[in-house]
Q: What sequence folds into this?
């Protein structure tokens, strides 16, 4: 299976910082393996601390300086 197809769990608050939230569903989102590598490597930043609410992603411009973004991040922000 390719990295862009395989899904992995990402903890919004890292397990090392919030060990009490390791199994908390509000702390876990599902992302493709390729995106997970970019998030944990600091290339993609995640905005949000609660998976039951909207979570937003954007490129870390400082980390990406001079690099080609492998994909476009599109947000579906809804107006309540």
A:
């Amino acid at each position: 299976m390719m990295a862009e197809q395989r899904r992995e769990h990402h903890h919004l608050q890292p397990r090392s910082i919030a060990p009490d939230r390791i199994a908390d569903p509000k702390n876990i989102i599902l992302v493709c393996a390729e995106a997970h590598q970019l998030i944990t490597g600091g290339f993609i930043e995640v905005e949000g601390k609660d998976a039951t609410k909207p979570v937003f992603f954007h490129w870390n411009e400082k980390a990406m300086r001079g690099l080609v973004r492998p994909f476009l991040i599109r947000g579906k922000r809804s107006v309540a």
